[in-house]
Here is the input.
Amino acid sequence: MTDLLFHTLIGQTIIGYFLMFTIPALIPISFYKLVGLKGLRNALTFEPKDTIIHRLDPRLKVVYPAIMGTLSVFLSWNWVYALLLFCIVPWIMLKPSRTRLRFLLVMTVVPALGEVWSQGIVYNFDNQYLFRFPWTLSWTGVNGLSVQGLEYGLQQAGRFLITVLSSLLLVFTTEPSDIIWACMKLKLPVKLGFALSAGLRFMPLMFERLSILLQAMEVRGYDFSRPDRWWNFREWADYFKRVIVALPLITVPLLINSLRGTHIMAMVADARAFGAHPYRGSFKNHEHTWEDRAALGYYAFLIAGVCLLLSLGIGLRSNYG
Here is the structure.
């Protein structure tokens, strides 16, 4: 059976199509299965807790993704994963709930695996393949699953994980008003903080509206049920047809509701004279605590450690790393 799959044109074509199309399709499906719209709506919101990370100065949490992302760019890929371990330390201190932890794993691990796989398909310069596609897949412009591509995807996945983990830490532990205050204190454009807070506020609302819209369509008789078994190809074809037909019925109301919400938010901002003065006095000022000094020491330790590695020529990034 193995020889029939790997040493015949039909078997190689089946495996090639599976590697090319089926595995990438499993990534959004697994994301939807593990998180879903309701879980995504609840996870992308501020979670009030009394932890050290929550009590930190918002300015430290705003610059944290920029610091970690910059440090990861200069390091080689193996040292990037060492930096990733330090990026996990704040999450251990945060102790997120089981729902947030599952969302965190799906938001980081699933896209990282997808990036590794996609680079294995499209990235290759030394013609070393784990599996070479037959001529029946030549129309895709891809030769096969390469060893060098998987290595390159693994390198880039480390930097992706660091950026996402540090950014989600800001989302989960910082109120939107604190983000605006931090941007104001850091001499950044206040509109930047307003845009970040508005995005964090309206993204969960968008998924909530999408969930309500799907439920309303089902109440009115539209069928979104999937086939029970994967080998019912005729039922799957009918299912995809129903989904494609329903796309305009979903996207148009969702777009109109988003535009209405944006218009109302703009009127509220004008009514509160947003942008009329360079400084706003209605925000709660943050007093420096020992947690802030410890966080500053943590930042200094990471920056000094990376600079030391680079000066010694240990963690220098190669041409492909």
The beta strands are 129-132, 144-146. The chain has a mean pLDDT of 79. Residues 1-174+287-321 form one domain.
